[in-house]
Amino acid sequence: MRTSVTASITTIRAVGVELLWQLLKPLLISGGIVAIGLITFGGWLTTQHALWWILEIIFISSTMLFILLAIITRVILKILTPQQNIEQRKAIQAFVDKLQRISDTIGISRFVLFFRIVRDIIWPREQTFIKQIADDSATLHTDFIKLQKLFNTDKV
Prior knowledge:
Number of strands: 0
Low-confidence stretches: none
Distance between the termini: 9 Å
Shape: elongated
Number of domains: 1
Strand content: under 5%
């Protein structure tokens, strides 16, 4: 059974967004911890002398900018994410985890992996990067076919 091009693009888009979210999540968490630490440190400094409020204002405004960028990023990712049911969501997460383990094994960084997926989304080709990896790996091949069937909306 052949999968449609739409199902393939949707699958790749879902994998790309999930990979990006998994890349950004640690950065957002560590950025939040640093922001809390800076505001706390700046608050302590303001108890030492009133001029430290200048630095505290910089810390607060930087934190607000960070929060705004985090919210914008999350909204963009929600917009880009194709509609998925619970089964599709779990399958995408499992596939991305397996894809990351394989990319670690073959020595491709996660950012290069994400760049190649984005390139496939922007310029669709017959043999996409994920499909190429899936064809090279017997375990990924069957998982990718299952994902494509989950996203296949064309009844042929």
